[in-house]
Specification:
Strand order of the largest sheet: 1-8-9
Order of helices and strands: HHEEEEEEEEHE
Radius of gyration: 31 Å
Oligomer: single chain
Number of strands: 9
Helix content: 40-55%
Number of helices: 3
Strand content: 25-35%
């Protein structure tokens, strides 16, 4: 009789464990559903990355076009590197409150629009700084042409000469 009580008690515990496990999975599932896009980049991050890539491509095309106009230079390939992405400063609205312990202020972003069209007000936006330019081209191995390209790109884009490198391309 004692053995049957132990067996039924063990069966009861096994049933409880599965119920607890199911309950735990349900709670975890609910929590994961409440936290949107966990582990996924935000839409603004993806847009910023795309914008930075497009900006870099446009500068690379302009530099390649400029370099290819120099006599003795052809088959130009350019890579541009930045020290940061676009930097945006948003407007804030500061609410001041006076309490018994002194004044207290709360900053909130200024938002315009409504519903799905809400967006924060931008005060200023800083473009990425070019921190390096690599140019590979035919004619880039010639020290005179290389110096000419470095001077040209430094003057046109305000990048220090020591941050521009020119190399000879494959023949």
């Amino acid at each position: 009789m004692k053995e049957t009580k132990q067996m039924s008690f063990l069966a009861y515990l096994r049933a409880k464990k599965s119920i607890l496990a199911i309950g735990a999975f349900l709670i975890i599932g609910i929590i994961l559903m409440m936290v949107p896009n966990l582990g996924e980049p935000s839409k603004s991050t993806v847009n910023d990355d795309k914008r930075l890539t497009e900006y870099a491509n446009s500068i690379e095309i302009k530099i390649a076009d400029l370099c290819s106009k120099v006599r003795g230079i052809s088959d130009v390939s350019v890579s541009v590197y930045f020290d940061h992405g676009f930097q945006t400063q948003y407007a804030f609205d500061e609410e001041g409150r006076t309490t018994s312990s002194g004044s207290n202020s709360e900053k909130k972003h200024v938002i315009i629009g409504s519903g799905n069209d809400e967006r924060m007000v931008i005060v200023s936006e800083r473009m990425p700084n070019i921190c390096g330019i690599a140019i590979v081209c035919r004619g880039g191995g010639d020290s005179v042409l290389s110096a000419e390209l470095i001077n040209l790109i430094s003057a046109a884009y305000g990048v220090p000469k020591h941050k521009i490198y020119v190399a000879e391309g494959k023949k």
